[in-house]
Amino acid sequence: MINAKSAIAILSVFFLSTFAKAQLTVHKMISVGYTYQNQSFGEIGGKLLFLKNDDVIYRLGGSALMGSAHSQFAIMPKISADVLLNFEKNVDFNHSYYFLMGAEGTNKYFAPKVGVTLFGILDLTGGYAFPIGNSGINCKELKGVNVNFTLNIPTVFIHDMFK
């Protein structure tokens, strides 16, 4: 069983070795979404998007999962790392969809995931969550099928909207 520290170390080494090879552009995004993990959670947070060209895009994010568990409001911190792939080479901004693979982790579970994203803005992913330690929120264990629907809003878009 992989623990949270090992997962973070593996993802960090992967991303840092990739960044050492090329000059990357960084874009900030605000993310809002829905997560189902044996119960429903709303999600709000931020992500950093790293790219050299748009064939392969990397994202790192942090957010808060918020929901009701046994009539009590619960909040969990979540970190995520994604790789977005589009196999059409030498096409700059005209990519419309990407295959997405990544992982997310909270203080209650770790979940590898796969899915698709439209322009890197609208994500639909699914995976399987593995519990970490005492993983229940008010006695409900967070393991099994994991589904995420997320809207990633670039901060540049928000800035330009209010000019």
Automatic annotation (TrEMBL):
<protein>
    <recommendedName>
        <fullName>Outer membrane protein beta-barrel domain-containing protein</fullName>
    </recommendedName>
</protein>
<keyword id="KW-0732">Signal</keyword>
<feature type="signal peptide">
    <location>
        <begin position="1"/>
        <end position="22"/>
    </location>
</feature>
